[in-house]
C-alpha cells in the first residue's frame, strides 16, 4: 500500500536509529522524555 498524500512524511530510518541509540546510551526509558531531550539537545 502506498503512503497517503496527506499528513506528515515519515522519518528516515537512520535518524530514528540514532535517536534510539542516543536514548539507550543516556538511559532514557520514556519516549516522551526522549522526545524532550532530543528537542533540547539537537535544536
TrEMBL record:
It holds the Pfam family DUF772. Residues 6-40 form the Transposase InsH N-terminal domain. PANTHER family: TRANSPOSASE, TRANSPOSASE DDE DOMAIN-CONTAINING PROTEIN. This is Transposase.
Amino acid at each position: 500500500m502506498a503512503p497517503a498524500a496527506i499528513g506528515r512524511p515519515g522519518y528516515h530510518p537512520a535518524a530514528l536509529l540514532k535517536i534510539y541509540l542516543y536514548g539507550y546510551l543516556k538511559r532514557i526509558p520514556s519516549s516522551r522524555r526522549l522526545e524532550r531531550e532530543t528537542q533540547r539537545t539537537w535544536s
